[in-house]
Fold this sequence. Notes:
The protein is mainly beta. It has strands at 8-9, 13-20, 25-31, 35-36, 40-42, 45-53, 55-61, 67-73, 77-80, 86-90, 94-102, 113-115, 120-121.
Amino acid sequence: MSVPTNIQKKLWGQTWPLFRDDNLLIMRLLVGAGGYCSEHYHRNRSNLFVVHHGVLLVRTETRGGEWETRAITGGQSLLVPTGSVHQFEARTLVLCDEVYYPCSGGKIDVNDIVRRTEGGRR
């Protein structure tokens, strides 16, 4: 097994790319227990969380401004549509993939993120 050389450190853990072309980006995430990302949305990307190990809570904001929380565990996935405000938090150590693809065709733009808050660790 090779060790990735392009790891990005985050307040909540670390991430590295598994695959990228113009229309698809797959990132591997290692999220420490209690780690959480910012509340944010993507202007032109949908993303699919695929959990391999652990318990990941994914909160999404409804049109009425309420929050819905789903727990996904090893072998489960959850799609967050483009424009949907969301945030994840790890209940345990989590290994997952985040699959991004443009909603309206075109190329992946990694700068399409709009953040409301900062991530961190509880």
